[in-house]
Amino acid sequence: MFDLPVLNITETALHDNEQGSPVFDMLDMPNAPITRATRKLYVETYGCAMNVSDSEIVMGVMHKSGYVMTDKPDDADVILLNTCAIRDGAERKIHERLKHLKFYKRKRRDLVIGILGCMAERMRDELITEKQIVDLVVGPDEYRALPQLIAKAYEGEKGIAVKLSRVETYDDIVPLRTEGISAWISVSRGCDKFCTFCVVPFTRGRERSRSLQLIVDEAKQLWDSGFKEITLLGQNVNSYHDDASNQDFADLLARTARAVPQMRIRYSTSHPYDMSDKLIETMAEHDNVCKYVHLPVQSGSDRVLEAMNRHYTIAHYIERMQKIKDVMPQCALSTDIIVGFPTETEEEHQMTMALMQEVRYDGAFMFKYSPREKTKAWKMGDDVSEEVKTRRLSEIIEQQHQISHEINQTTIGTIERVLVEGLSRRDSTAWQGRTDSNKRTMFTHITNAGELNAEGKTAGYVVGDTVTVRIQRATSATLIGEIVLNS
Ligand code: SF4
């Protein structure tokens, strides 16, 4: 999960989108008869995009068993928290949330509360014994068992299902997606890399890939149902391999790009070890594959990378970055950085700063090292003090903001193609969307959407359209521009 884009997804983000309407529109799912007994399910998702995608699978499984979704916890018969265990802070959030949920349980004795995801897998029966209000603990590979476990919980039997699978990919489950223009498609599950700081191999098991044909079919279905953009997801998406057809991730990307030529295709997250020339060239060959690569480096020191068991050197990493820039000069780059890994010296911290200066990322996800039980790094102790971690993190963030700001200044005066996502959260007179290179862009229109402009022409665009924007200003995080008419 370290590698996947950590979206600051809390329940609010998922449960009241900008329009404030219930977010669940049951796409391509047979309508379950709404009977007196129809039970309502409320799902809260924490952590990374893989968990968002898993929550859609969970809702798909539950809907097939006759549940309907609700976006209000006090309206629910079943509340499921899909949790993250990547850092201590992520788990503390769940403990806090369970304190709130006590209120609902007191109000409704028959309310069923379940913990899903990586924290469920990591803490297992501890959650049941420690937390009276928890009725179910279900790991990422056991979601098919949810309807039965919930039925037993109604009879007063607490349930725990945390077996990790070497084969489970939920290939036949149709995720229940919220309406929108961007969708996640998980193409593989688990991870075999065993980075010494990471819990993912212990909470999500061994790597396994879905069938290439079913992924391509799913992309076509999503296009037909109005989605404009997909992100192919995996802990290590570029180590994807379809054994049946002996095809790798570059093949999957090319097949998907050809199958839905109008659709924007993104993928996340890659590992430097598996970033092949074939993948880089495949990206360049297909216009609808977005020119944005998220490639976590974690540290600028070979000694620290070895202690992290990352399987590459800085020389290899820089060579891969140079290859991407040579083949796709316009490609935007981002990364993950961990500061304060056990035994990291001040000199090695400066190496990380120097690497970020050399690569000049468009953006980065930057974290303090958080010791996790069961991981190899746990045994190394946590010898970098909190104070030093905080100082190193703020130095890295400050430097990255400066670099992002400088890079975004170079877009002023240029023309960008932006996928319209909706009205800006910050300025209701502006719209927002993202460029092909994944830069958030706010843009105004000389007329409000739908109104006629001076030439008697309408704005003529809606959410999901791709429009042309001339960039006028930029911050380290956002480009601001104006729409170029009739483009
Ligand atoms: S073990 Fe390493 S490669 Fe795998 S998910 Fe964790 S950080 Fe990513």
Structural notes for this entry:
- This protein has 487 residues and is an alpha/beta fold.
- Helices cover 33% and strands 20% of the residues.
- The chain has 14 helices and 21 strands.
- The strands form 6 sheets. A 6-stranded parallel beta sheet has the order 2-1-3-4-5-6, sandwiched between helices.
- α8 runs parallel beside α9.
- It starts with 10 loop residues before the first helix and ends with a strand.
- The relative contact order is 0.08.
- The N terminus is likely disordered.
- Iron/sulfur cluster binds next to α7.
Distance N terminus to C terminus?
Answer: 40 Å
| Form type | globular
CATH class of the largest domain: Alpha Beta
CATH architecture of the largest domain: 3-Layer(aba) Sandwich
Total helical elements: 14
Uncertain segments of ≥5 residues (pLDDT<50)?
1-36, 448-454
Which tags fit this structure?
487 residues, alpha/beta, Rossmann fold, Transcription Regulator spoIIAA, 4 domains, six-stranded parallel sheet, five-stranded mixed beta barrel, 14 helices, globular, binds iron/sulfur cluster
In brief, what are we looking at here?
The protein has 487 residues and is an alpha/beta fold. It has helices at 11-15, 49-64, 88-107, 117-123, 125-130, 146-154, 200-204, 212-224, 249-259, 277-285, 302-307, 314-327, 346-359, 386-409; strands at residues 40-45, 68-69, 78-83, 112-116, 136-138, 159-161, 182-186, 188-189, 208-209, 229-233, 241-242, 247-248, 264-268, 292-294, 332-339, 363-368, 415-423, 431-435, 440-444, 466-474, 478-483.
